[in-house]
Every structure is written in structure tokens, then in C-alpha cells.
Amino acid sequence: MSEQPSPTQSRQTQIYLEGIGGRMPIVPVDVNALEARAREKLSPASFAYFAGGAGLERTMDANRRAFDRWQIVPRMLRDVSTRDPSIELFGQRLPAPLLLAPVGVLELAHAEADVAVASAAAACGLPMIFSNQASKPMECAATVMGDSPRWFQLYWSRSDELVASFLSRAEACGCTALVVTLDTTLLGWRPRDLDAANLPFLRGKGIAQYTSDPVFQRLTRETLAQPAPPGPKPSLAAIGALLDMARAHPGSTLNNLCSGRARAAVQTFVSIFSRPSIAWEHLPFLRAHTRLPILLKGIQHSDDARRAADAGMDSIIVSNHGGRQVDGAIGALDALPAVVSAVPKSMPVLFDSGIRTGADAFKALALGARAVCLGRPVAYGLAAGGRAGVESVLRNFMTDFEITMGLSGCRNVAEIHREMLLPAS
């Protein structure tokens, strides 16, 4: 009986065959070239927002160095003619141990923003974690996904009423899990953004979940009813910022300018994002307001992992926010084994921060992760090629992972074990 290539392996063949006819990949396959292509497409400030990290970006470097400390030891003669990279997570079968990490302000990369990414994720059958700081409302992204899985990321704001509204909307639009990001109760010190004096939220970008929410709209009306705080001195830059706010806000640009709604929305957002007082004792509020599985994102210490399990959380995502929050922090992969050991085997641990290739995913799974989340490469694919660019990035990653899995001697994800890694000498 002849061996049939898997759908992901067929992608590799497809790329080579299309090359015979002179057709090159939509976006670069190499992740470094992909980043370079995105840099060409984006404005310097927009690229800095996606690519930058905290401080001297030592944590970003630590994320990548952590992968280099482990080497895969392939095993031979194991009959990998049939491979199954799929996993089950929270009762859903996924084609690969891969999710799209929440990435905010995607309008900086492409006008279709979250909708384009959602469409590409659905085409691949992969879950997209809707960002709390999305450029399109979660309902718009959900519309293009059909029955494909989607989750929602929450930044816990100062308004519990708004939090409850977000959770209700997430359930209503078909989200099947809640990801609570814990590491951004304060905005990290990010020199690339600071040197450009650029925070997109202050221009009304990346706050579509807010401006589409009935609770936030009421809070904005309350802001409008109060005396306006003094604004910046009139200048072309200040006028440009007001225009950006007005264009980003739902409705007529002219009406948004004249009514002050867009500026009031930004003021309201600034006043309620984020909430540094959040503590362990606040977690029951989430349980009381959602039926969804709750994942805590940003756990890096085994004691915090144990507390999450004791608090009845459903899962953990080991993450340092891609190095965007604390400079000089532990590489996320270095934190993974201790976190996995600290929680019950029945509690899935996911991984985020620094994932770039299928080999990276293989190493994370060998160290105990159930699945990984892909962030910056998705944004770069969107900038470089729109929706098609994102789908290309996802399919390339899935193919890379399956080939790595097979060439390492594994027929499925369950066969990926710690014994398949050795510390680098």
C-alpha cells in the first residue's frame, strides 16, 4: 500500500511544485526573513510596537536562549509513515498543539486586523485567542470563524461591571475558554515605544472591545458629562491625534470629532486600564461570572502554579508576555518544567513566549506543555501578506512541527517525551 502524505506534508510539496512555475511563497518561510519583510511594510513606530520588549530586551533574548539550551535527540526506525499532530484540549480536537496568542492593535499591521487573523485561523482549524486590546470587536472576528474554536483574553480593568460585560459577550459569541493575563497590571517600560512617544491606545487604536461594549459606552457618556481636562496645546500633531481617535471610533469621523465622543472614549479607557490591585482573592469573581474554563496567563513560578491549581483554575499559560513586561526576567521555557511539576497531571499547561518554529514547539511539548501559542509571527504575517500571509505562517508552522515530530521518531504528540531532549553542551 502506498503511503499518502499528510495535509501538512503536502504543503511542503506544494511550495516546491509551485516554485517550478515561478511562484514563490506568499510570505517568507524563514521567521527572520518574515520579520524583516514585516519591518519593510510597517511604519517604524508600528514595527517597534510589535517587535519591542521591556528595557534592554534581555528577557526577549532569554526566551530564545532558553530554547538553545535544549537539543532534540531523534530516534530512528520507528515507522512514522502515519503521523497525527492533533491534540484534545477542553473537549475540542485541534489539528495541532497550536493556538494563536492574543496580539493587540493589529490595525497597525493591516486594515482588516483581527478579522483577517480570525479568518486565517478558522481556515486552519486553530483556536484564536481574541485580544482584549483588539482592533475589531470580538463579535466581528467570531462572525468569520463559523464553528472554529475561539477563546477570549481578559485584561482585568478597574471596572468589574465592564469585566462582567466582556465575559458575557465572550460567551455569547462562542468563545470556549477565558485567558486572564496577569502580567500586565502595569504597562512595561518599553524604550522602543517611548523613544517614538507612541502608545496606540491614546490614538483610539486597539480599544475596539471597549468602544463596542454597552457598559463602556455608558462610562464614556459619563466622562462626556464631566468638564474636559486640559488637552495638549494646539498643534498639527495634536490635531492629527484627534483625527486618529475620531477615525478609530465607531460612527462618523466628523460626528466623533464634533461630539467629543472619541476623545472621551480614550480618556475613559485610560482611567480604567489596568488594575494593579488584582490579587488571588479576586479570582472567585470570575468563577461567578463565567461558565468557561479559566486559564491564568503569565505564571512563571511553581508556587504561583500551585496557588492557581488550589484556586480551581482550569489551566496555566507559562508566559512572560514575550519579554514585553519585565527586563531581565527568566526565559519562559526555563520556567516551564517547574510549573508543570507543580500542578496535577490533569491540569493542562500551555506555553507562550519565544515560540518561532516547529522545533521550538517540539521542545516545549517535550518539557511538559500541552500546546503552544504563536504571537509575533502572526502579526508579521499579517503585515507582510494580510489574511493570506497569516494563513501561510500558520500552515508553515504546522508543517514544520509535524515534520520535526516525524523525523524525531514520534507518530503523535503523546510520544513526545522529556527523554527526547538533552541539555546542550
Largest sheet report: 8 strands, parallel
Biggest sheet strand line-up: 4-11-10-9-8-7-6-5
The CATH class of the largest domain is Alpha Beta
Helix content: 40-55%
The low-confidence parts are none
Q: What's the number of helices?
A: 18
Q: How much of the polypeptide forms β-strand, as a percent range? A: 5-15%
Tally of structural domains: 2
C-alpha Rg (nearest Å): 22 Å
Order of helices and strands: HHHHEEEEHEHEHEHHHHHHHEHEHEHEHE
Structural class: alpha/beta
Q: What distance lies between the first and last C-alpha atoms, to the nearest angstrom?
A: 43 Å
Can you give a write-up of this model?
The protein has 425 residues and is of the alpha/beta class. The protein folds into 2 domains: 7-187 and 275-423, TIM Barrel (Alpha-Beta Barrel), CATH 3.20.20.70; 202-271, no CATH class. 46% of the residues lie in helices and 10% in strands. The chain contains 18 helices and 12 strands. Strands 4-11-10-9-8-7-6-5 form an 8-stranded parallel sheet. A two-stranded antiparallel ribbon has the order 1-12. It has a two-stranded antiparallel ribbon with strand order 2-3. The longest helix has 32 residues, at 376-407. It is globular and about 75 Å long. The chain starts with 6 loop residues before the first helix and ends with a strand.
